[in-house]
């Protein structure tokens, strides 16, 4: 979520890593940010997050009138001792049942804490996607059978009214045994798995007033080309994930003045998805593959850029600091796919990298 820079928790940028036996308290005021978020370690995050240093962070509106079932679904996987991947929804690594009476409104807050995109399938009921990355969508319409591809680090909130028959949320991939089965009794079997097209937020919902658009005058424009290459990094041979040909710490610092209107474009020329995550700001998606977004205003803090895709986004530079802008595939971040958004006049007393205690990625 958008917190003041000093509460951002990035080792080597906004604080030193919290070492064994130490503590650090984050203090911030939550204003106008009702929605679904999560928090995680930003010290050796690729390893720390896979092994569980994370949790959901749900902000309810001041006068929450929702009376139905409100359920966070924290989707995660990790490498087991048998060298295979284990998936889980929260602490459930097999099918989990929940008894829900027909007519009950149900809100599922899907949170992808993994490093790869997750395709969810909600079977047995039409549903609406009511929020993305903590921001409500305008005039969402009912979907049936569509699958939901959620960026690593991203969140979709979906809502439906419980029907008289069972509803199932699945993470349909080969190794996965997890599912979440809602029914009015403990014996119902799962409905047939839906297999429709993938939901596209760019054309979903209705437009409404936006603070800026493709035709705005931008104070700063940044183009980020996302590539792959093979090379040495931290003394190991492997895939590197350069931005504009460079890997961290040689990636360019994007410099802005407070108040700037900033346009950023992403082009993925590599063979893997890059869920691009900017700290401290929400980005308004303006275009997808060269076509303007025609649906609801679509605000993100994490945008999945698949191979061959391009996006233009914009944001107001209204939160001074030094902010990470990185791929939320944390293994890509650990192999160089990191840069920073810097505000003129802001510096950091902390140090990062080998020879320091701070390894944020
Ligand atoms: Cu990536």
Automatic annotation (TrEMBL):
<dbReference type="Pfam" id="PF07731">
    <property type="entry name" value="Cu-oxidase_2"/>
</dbReference>
<feature type="domain" description="Plastocyanin-like">
    <location>
        <begin position="238"/>
        <end position="340"/>
    </location>
</feature>
<protein>
    <recommendedName>
        <fullName>Multicopper oxidase family protein</fullName>
    </recommendedName>
</protein>
<feature type="domain" description="Plastocyanin-like">
    <location>
        <begin position="7"/>
        <end position="63"/>
    </location>
</feature>
<dbReference type="InterPro" id="IPR011707">
    <property type="entry name" value="Cu-oxidase-like_N"/>
</dbReference>
<dbReference type="GO" id="GO:0016491">
    <property type="term" value="F:oxidoreductase activity"/>
</dbReference>
<dbReference type="InterPro" id="IPR002355">
    <property type="entry name" value="Cu_oxidase_Cu_BS"/>
</dbReference>
<dbReference type="Pfam" id="PF00394">
    <property type="entry name" value="Cu-oxidase"/>
</dbReference>
<dbReference type="InterPro" id="IPR011706">
    <property type="entry name" value="Cu-oxidase_C"/>
</dbReference>
<dbReference type="InterPro" id="IPR001117">
    <property type="entry name" value="Cu-oxidase_2nd"/>
</dbReference>
<dbReference type="GO" id="GO:0005507">
    <property type="term" value="F:copper ion binding"/>
</dbReference>
<dbReference type="InterPro" id="IPR045087">
    <property type="entry name" value="Cu-oxidase_fam"/>
</dbReference>
<keyword id="KW-0479">Metal-binding</keyword>
<dbReference type="InterPro" id="IPR008972">
    <property type="entry name" value="Cupredoxin"/>
</dbReference>
<keyword id="KW-0560">Oxidoreductase</keyword>
<dbReference type="Pfam" id="PF07732">
    <property type="entry name" value="Cu-oxidase_3"/>
</dbReference>
<feature type="domain" description="Plastocyanin-like">
    <location>
        <begin position="71"/>
        <end position="163"/>
    </location>
</feature>
């Amino acid at each position: 979520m958008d917190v003041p820079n000093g509460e951002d928790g990035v080792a080597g940028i906004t604080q030193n890593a919290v070492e064994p036996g130490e503590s650090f308290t984050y203090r911030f005021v939550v204003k106008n940010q009702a929605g679904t978020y999560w928090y995680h370690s930003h010290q050796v995050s690729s390893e720390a997050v896979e092994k569980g240093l994370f949790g959901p962070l749900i902000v309810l509106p001041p006068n929450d009138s929702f009376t139905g079932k409100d359920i966070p679904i924290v989707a995660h996987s990790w490498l087991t001792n048998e060298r295979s991947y284990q998936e889980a929804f929260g602490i459930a690594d097999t099918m989990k049942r929940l008894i829900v009476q027909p007519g009950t409104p149900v809100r599922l807050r899907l949170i992808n804490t993994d490093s790869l995109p997750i395709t969810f399938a909600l079977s047995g009921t039409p549903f609406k996607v009511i929020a993305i990355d903590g921001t409500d969508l305008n005039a969402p319409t009912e979907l049936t059978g569509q699958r939901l591809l959620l960026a690593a680090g991203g969140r979709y909130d979906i809502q439906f009214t419980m029907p008289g028959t069972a509803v199932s949320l699945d993470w349909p991939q080969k190794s996965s045994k997890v599912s979440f089965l809602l029914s009015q009794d403990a014996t119902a079997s799962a409905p047939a798995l839906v297999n429709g097209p993938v939901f596209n937020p760019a054309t979903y919902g209705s437009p409404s007033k936006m603070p800026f658009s493709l035709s705005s005058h931008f104070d700063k424009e940044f183009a980020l080309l996302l590539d792959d290459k093979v090379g040495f990094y931290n003394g190991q041979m492997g895939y590197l994930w350069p931005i504009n040909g460079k890997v961290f710490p040689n990636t360019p610092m994007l410099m802005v003045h407070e108040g700037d209107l900033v346009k950023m474009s992403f082009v993925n020329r590599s063979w893997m998805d890059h869920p691009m995550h900017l700290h401290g700001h929400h980005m308004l998606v303006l275009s997808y593959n060269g076509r303007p977004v025609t649906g609801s205003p679509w605000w993100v803090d994490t945008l999945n850029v698949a191979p061959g895709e391009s996006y233009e986004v914009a944001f107001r530079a209204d939160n001074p600091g030094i902010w990470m802008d990185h791929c939320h595939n944390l293994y890509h971040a650990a192999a160089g796919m990191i840069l920073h958004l810097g505000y003129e006049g802001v510096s950091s007393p902390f140090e990062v990298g080998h020879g320091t205690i701070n390894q944020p990625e």
